[in-house]
Design goal:
Helix content is about 40%, strand content about 10%. It is α+β, with helices and mostly antiparallel strands. The strands form 2 sheets. Strands 1-4 form a two-stranded antiparallel sheet. Helix 2 packs across helix 3.
């Protein structure tokens, strides 16, 4: 992503997010703002994440983007456990 100019040295928050533990972490609203800019037009919004065995109750990439956007707009810290 650095080679393509999508990330700069100012995007350390995004790098930390990408390598954060999936069992717990956080991303500031500024990090969410930058992350949303990177992902808003990326990927299949219907791609499912999580436990597929739950069927239609599984989160989608669109759900994830909405969470990131909400954190950005409302100046919330995104946290996960």
């Amino acid at each position: 992503m650095y080679d393509r100019g999508e990330l700069t040295d100012q995007d350390d928050l995004i790098i930390e997010f990408l390598f954060a533990c999936d069992c717990g972490g956080k991303l500031s609203y500024k990090g969410c703002t930058r992350l949303y800019e990177l992902i808003k037009d990326y990927g299949d919004d219907n791609e499912k994440y999580g436990y597929i065995g739950w069927g239609d109750d599984c989160a989608t990439f669109a759900d994830f983007k909405e969470i990131v956007k909400d954190c950005s707009v409302n100046h919330w810290i995104m946290k996960w456990d």
